[in-house]
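TL;DR need C-alpha coordinates for one chain.
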Amino acid sequence: MEIIYTKEHRYRCIEESKIETDCSSIYKAQDLELNRNVCIKSLKLDGANSNEIQIKLQRAMLEVRAMVEISDKVTHIPNILSTYFDKEKLTFYIIMQWIEGASLKERMSVPEMQFINWMINLCDILSAMEKKNLYHKDIKPANIMIDSSNELFLIDFNISVSTPNMIEGTLYYKAPEMDNKSKYMGREKVDMFAIGVMLYEYYTKEIPKKTIDYAKNTERGSFEWDIFVEAIEKNSEVPKEINDIIIKCMKLDPKQRYRNSNELKYELNKAVRSLRNDKNRGFKPGRPV
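>> reply
TL;DR here they are.
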Protein backbone atom coordinates (compact mmCIF):
# COMPACT_ATOMS: atom_id res chain seq x y z
CA MET A 1 0.00 0.00 0.00
CA GLU A 2 1.21 3.49 -0.85
CA ILE A 3 2.62 5.62 1.96
CA ILE A 4 2.22 9.39 1.59
CA TYR A 5 4.68 11.51 3.56
CA THR A 6 4.01 15.10 4.58
CA LYS A 7 6.00 17.31 6.93
CA GLU A 8 3.92 16.25 9.92
CA HIS A 9 2.33 12.87 9.19
CA ARG A 10 2.58 9.58 7.36
CA TYR A 11 -0.53 8.17 5.72
CA ARG A 12 -1.06 4.59 4.55
CA CYS A 13 -3.51 4.59 1.63
CA ILE A 14 -6.04 1.78 1.38
CA GLU A 15 -5.89 0.87 -2.30
CA GLU A 16 -9.35 -0.75 -2.38
CA SER A 17 -10.88 2.64 -1.56
CA LYS A 18 -9.13 4.56 -4.35
CA ILE A 19 -11.44 6.59 -6.60
CA GLU A 20 -10.11 8.11 -9.81
CA THR A 21 -11.65 11.29 -11.26
CA ASP A 22 -10.65 13.38 -14.28
CA CYS A 23 -7.98 15.30 -12.40
CA SER A 24 -7.57 13.71 -8.98
CA SER A 25 -7.42 10.53 -6.92
CA ILE A 26 -9.31 10.07 -3.65
CA TYR A 27 -8.23 7.59 -1.01
CA LYS A 28 -9.29 6.37 2.38
CA ALA A 29 -6.06 6.40 4.39
CA GLN A 30 -4.79 5.75 7.90
CA ASP A 31 -2.95 8.52 9.71
CA LEU A 32 -0.04 6.52 11.14
CA GLU A 33 0.85 9.24 13.64
CA LEU A 34 -2.61 9.77 15.16
CA ASN A 35 -4.11 6.35 14.32
CA ARG A 36 -7.24 7.67 12.62
CA ASN A 37 -8.86 7.32 9.22
CA VAL A 38 -8.72 10.29 6.87
CA CYS A 39 -9.69 11.10 3.30
CA ILE A 40 -6.86 12.16 0.99
CA LYS A 41 -7.48 13.91 -2.31
CA SER A 42 -4.36 14.05 -4.47
CA LEU A 43 -4.11 16.31 -7.49
CA LYS A 44 -1.37 16.01 -10.08
CA LEU A 45 -0.16 19.48 -11.04
CA ASP A 46 2.02 18.57 -14.02
CA GLY A 47 2.38 21.46 -16.42
CA ALA A 48 4.51 22.60 -19.31
CA ASN A 49 6.23 25.22 -17.17
CA SER A 50 6.44 26.51 -13.61
CA ASN A 51 3.86 29.21 -14.31
CA GLU A 52 1.19 26.65 -15.27
CA ILE A 53 2.00 24.58 -12.18
CA GLN A 54 1.62 27.66 -10.00
CA ILE A 55 -1.80 28.43 -11.54
CA LYS A 56 -2.99 24.87 -10.83
CA LEU A 57 -1.69 25.09 -7.26
CA GLN A 58 -3.51 28.38 -6.70
CA ARG A 59 -6.76 26.88 -8.00
CA ALA A 60 -6.35 23.86 -5.71
CA MET A 61 -5.90 26.21 -2.76
CA LEU A 62 -9.05 28.08 -3.81
CA GLU A 63 -10.99 24.82 -3.42
CA VAL A 64 -9.52 24.33 0.06
CA ARG A 65 -10.31 27.89 1.14
CA ALA A 66 -13.87 27.56 -0.18
CA MET A 67 -14.42 24.41 1.89
CA VAL A 68 -12.93 26.02 5.00
CA GLU A 69 -15.10 29.11 4.59
CA ILE A 70 -18.27 27.04 4.30
CA SER A 71 -17.36 24.58 7.07
CA ASP A 72 -17.10 27.57 9.43
CA LYS A 73 -20.82 28.20 8.81
CA VAL A 74 -22.27 24.69 8.51
CA THR A 75 -21.34 21.27 9.88
CA HIS A 76 -22.16 19.26 6.77
CA ILE A 77 -18.84 19.81 4.94
CA PRO A 78 -15.84 17.50 5.58
CA ASN A 79 -13.30 19.29 7.77
CA ILE A 80 -9.97 20.14 6.13
CA LEU A 81 -7.20 18.74 8.35
CA SER A 82 -4.17 19.88 6.36
CA THR A 83 -2.67 20.38 2.90
CA TYR A 84 0.71 19.47 1.48
CA PHE A 85 2.47 20.12 -1.83
CA ASP A 86 5.09 17.54 -2.83
CA LYS A 87 7.43 19.51 -5.10
CA GLU A 88 9.24 16.42 -6.34
CA LYS A 89 6.08 14.55 -7.35
CA LEU A 90 4.28 17.78 -8.33
CA THR A 91 1.29 16.53 -6.35
CA PHE A 92 -0.97 18.54 -4.08
CA TYR A 93 -2.63 16.66 -1.20
CA ILE A 94 -5.78 17.71 0.65
CA ILE A 95 -6.23 15.75 3.89
CA MET A 96 -9.83 15.77 5.06
CA GLN A 97 -12.20 14.22 7.54
CA TRP A 98 -13.21 10.71 6.46
CA ILE A 99 -17.01 10.28 6.24
CA GLU A 100 -17.86 6.72 7.18
CA GLY A 101 -21.03 5.83 5.33
CA ALA A 102 -22.41 5.65 1.80
CA SER A 103 -23.21 8.06 -0.98
CA LEU A 104 -26.76 9.25 -1.58
CA LYS A 105 -26.57 7.28 -4.82
CA GLU A 106 -26.63 4.15 -2.64
CA ARG A 107 -29.35 5.49 -0.34
CA MET A 108 -32.05 6.51 -2.82
CA SER A 109 -34.65 4.10 -1.41
CA VAL A 110 -34.93 5.62 2.07
CA PRO A 111 -38.30 6.70 3.52
CA GLU A 112 -39.85 9.79 1.96
CA MET A 113 -39.44 12.12 4.95
CA GLN A 114 -35.78 11.19 5.31
CA PHE A 115 -35.03 12.06 1.70
CA ILE A 116 -36.85 15.40 1.85
CA ASN A 117 -35.06 16.28 5.11
CA TRP A 118 -31.73 15.57 3.40
CA MET A 119 -32.70 18.02 0.66
CA ILE A 120 -33.51 20.58 3.38
CA ASN A 121 -30.05 19.98 4.92
CA LEU A 122 -28.53 20.47 1.48
CA CYS A 123 -30.35 23.80 1.16
CA ASP A 124 -28.68 24.95 4.41
CA ILE A 125 -25.24 24.22 2.93
CA LEU A 126 -26.06 25.93 -0.35
CA SER A 127 -27.46 28.95 1.48
CA ALA A 128 -24.16 29.38 3.33
CA MET A 129 -22.34 29.11 0.00
CA GLU A 130 -24.61 31.67 -1.67
CA LYS A 131 -23.67 34.23 0.97
CA LYS A 132 -20.06 33.82 -0.21
CA ASN A 133 -21.11 33.90 -3.89
CA LEU A 134 -20.04 30.26 -4.19
CA TYR A 135 -21.95 27.58 -6.09
CA HIS A 136 -21.11 23.87 -6.07
CA LYS A 137 -22.04 23.28 -9.74
CA ASP A 138 -21.83 19.49 -9.52
CA ILE A 139 -24.65 18.49 -7.16
CA LYS A 140 -25.54 14.82 -7.71
CA PRO A 141 -26.12 11.76 -5.49
CA ALA A 142 -22.49 10.62 -5.89
CA ASN A 143 -21.26 13.92 -4.39
CA ILE A 144 -23.43 13.62 -1.29
CA MET A 145 -22.32 11.37 1.55
CA ILE A 146 -24.60 10.01 4.28
CA ASP A 147 -22.73 9.00 7.43
CA SER A 148 -23.57 6.23 9.89
CA SER A 149 -25.81 8.65 11.85
CA ASN A 150 -27.80 9.55 8.72
CA GLU A 151 -26.17 12.99 8.55
CA LEU A 152 -25.62 14.49 5.11
CA PHE A 153 -22.25 15.82 3.89
CA LEU A 154 -21.59 17.61 0.60
CA ILE A 155 -18.25 16.72 -1.00
CA ASP A 156 -16.09 17.50 -4.06
CA PHE A 157 -15.88 21.28 -4.43
CA ASN A 158 -13.47 21.12 -7.36
CA ILE A 159 -15.51 23.03 -9.95
CA SER A 160 -17.18 25.34 -7.41
CA VAL A 161 -14.18 27.63 -7.83
CA SER A 162 -13.88 27.30 -11.61
CA THR A 163 -14.96 29.91 -14.13
CA PRO A 164 -17.91 28.90 -16.35
CA ASN A 165 -16.87 26.59 -19.15
CA MET A 166 -18.48 24.12 -21.52
CA ILE A 167 -17.46 20.95 -19.66
CA GLU A 168 -18.83 21.83 -16.22
CA GLY A 169 -21.20 19.58 -14.34
CA THR A 170 -22.48 16.04 -14.80
CA LEU A 171 -24.80 14.82 -17.54
CA TYR A 172 -28.49 14.70 -16.45
CA TYR A 173 -27.86 16.73 -13.26
CA LYS A 174 -26.43 19.90 -14.77
CA ALA A 175 -28.68 22.86 -15.49
CA PRO A 176 -29.32 23.91 -19.11
CA GLU A 177 -27.36 27.13 -18.65
CA MET A 178 -24.21 25.03 -18.10
CA ASP A 179 -24.25 23.90 -21.73
CA ASN A 180 -21.70 25.55 -23.97
CA LYS A 181 -24.42 26.91 -26.27
CA SER A 182 -26.28 28.68 -23.48
CA LYS A 183 -26.39 32.47 -23.60
CA TYR A 184 -26.97 32.62 -19.84
CA MET A 185 -23.59 32.59 -18.12
CA GLY A 186 -24.78 32.87 -14.50
CA ARG A 187 -24.39 29.93 -12.13
CA GLU A 188 -26.42 31.10 -9.14
CA LYS A 189 -29.34 28.70 -9.76
CA VAL A 190 -27.59 25.57 -11.09
CA ASP A 191 -27.55 23.75 -7.72
CA MET A 192 -31.29 24.33 -7.37
CA PHE A 193 -31.88 22.67 -10.74
CA ALA A 194 -29.91 19.62 -9.55
CA ILE A 195 -32.07 19.34 -6.41
CA GLY A 196 -35.12 19.24 -8.67
CA VAL A 197 -33.51 16.43 -10.69
CA MET A 198 -32.74 14.42 -7.53
CA LEU A 199 -36.31 14.79 -6.23
CA TYR A 200 -37.59 13.68 -9.65
CA GLU A 201 -35.22 10.70 -9.56
CA TYR A 202 -36.25 9.75 -6.00
CA TYR A 203 -39.97 9.73 -6.71
CA THR A 204 -39.88 8.10 -10.15
CA LYS A 205 -36.66 6.04 -9.96
CA GLU A 206 -35.72 7.63 -13.28
CA ILE A 207 -33.32 10.48 -13.99
CA PRO A 208 -35.18 13.02 -16.19
CA LYS A 209 -33.43 13.14 -19.53
CA LYS A 210 -33.00 16.16 -21.73
CA THR A 211 -34.77 15.91 -25.13
CA ILE A 212 -36.92 13.04 -23.76
CA ASP A 213 -38.46 14.24 -20.48
CA TYR A 214 -37.82 17.92 -21.04
CA ALA A 215 -36.86 19.87 -24.15
CA LYS A 216 -37.23 23.22 -25.86
CA ASN A 217 -37.60 24.23 -29.46
CA THR A 218 -34.16 25.59 -30.31
CA GLU A 219 -35.59 27.63 -33.18
CA ARG A 220 -37.52 29.81 -30.76
CA GLY A 221 -36.05 32.20 -28.24
CA SER A 222 -38.54 31.10 -25.57
CA PHE A 223 -37.45 30.58 -21.97
CA GLU A 224 -40.01 27.80 -21.44
CA TRP A 225 -39.75 24.05 -21.98
CA ASP A 226 -41.81 22.92 -24.98
CA ILE A 227 -41.87 19.43 -23.44
CA PHE A 228 -41.80 18.67 -19.72
CA VAL A 229 -42.93 15.28 -18.42
CA GLU A 230 -43.82 15.97 -14.81
CA ALA A 231 -42.84 13.49 -12.10
CA ILE A 232 -46.51 13.03 -11.16
CA GLU A 233 -47.19 11.81 -14.71
CA LYS A 234 -44.76 8.93 -14.11
CA ASN A 235 -45.89 8.20 -10.57
CA SER A 236 -49.36 9.33 -9.52
CA GLU A 237 -48.37 9.12 -5.84
CA VAL A 238 -45.93 12.02 -6.10
CA PRO A 239 -47.39 14.72 -3.78
CA LYS A 240 -48.62 17.78 -5.67
CA GLU A 241 -46.53 20.01 -3.39
CA ILE A 242 -43.36 18.10 -4.31
CA ASN A 243 -44.28 17.98 -7.99
CA ASP A 244 -44.67 21.77 -7.97
CA ILE A 245 -41.26 22.14 -6.30
CA ILE A 246 -39.61 19.91 -8.93
CA ILE A 247 -41.18 21.93 -11.76
CA LYS A 248 -39.99 25.25 -10.32
CA CYS A 249 -36.46 23.96 -9.58
CA MET A 250 -36.17 22.69 -13.15
CA LYS A 251 -37.45 25.77 -14.95
CA LEU A 252 -35.52 26.47 -18.15
CA ASP A 253 -35.15 30.14 -17.23
CA PRO A 254 -33.04 30.41 -14.04
CA LYS A 255 -34.92 33.60 -13.12
CA GLN A 256 -38.15 31.57 -12.83
CA ARG A 257 -36.68 29.23 -10.22
CA TYR A 258 -36.71 29.99 -6.50
CA ARG A 259 -34.94 33.20 -5.52
CA ASN A 260 -32.45 31.33 -3.35
CA SER A 261 -31.91 28.14 -1.35
CA ASN A 262 -33.70 29.56 1.69
CA GLU A 263 -36.88 30.01 -0.33
CA LEU A 264 -36.59 26.43 -1.62
CA LYS A 265 -36.02 25.19 1.94
CA TYR A 266 -39.18 27.03 3.06
CA GLU A 267 -41.25 25.27 0.38
CA LEU A 268 -39.76 21.87 1.26
CA ASN A 269 -40.62 22.42 4.93
CA LYS A 270 -44.19 23.34 3.96
CA ALA A 271 -44.41 20.11 1.97
CA VAL A 272 -43.14 18.11 4.96
CA ARG A 273 -45.82 19.60 7.23
CA SER A 274 -48.51 18.81 4.67
CA LEU A 275 -47.34 15.22 4.25
CA ARG A 276 -47.19 14.66 8.01
CA ASN A 277 -50.82 15.75 8.29
CA ASP A 278 -51.81 13.17 5.67
CA LYS A 279 -52.42 10.14 7.87
CA ASN A 280 -53.22 7.95 4.85
CA ARG A 281 -49.83 8.56 3.27
CA GLY A 282 -47.90 5.35 2.70
CA PHE A 283 -45.61 6.28 -0.16
CA LYS A 284 -42.88 3.97 -1.37
CA PRO A 285 -40.27 5.67 -3.59
CA GLY A 286 -40.61 4.96 -7.28
CA ARG A 287 -43.74 2.84 -7.02
CA PRO A 288 -45.23 2.66 -10.54
CA VAL A 289 -48.48 4.44 -11.46
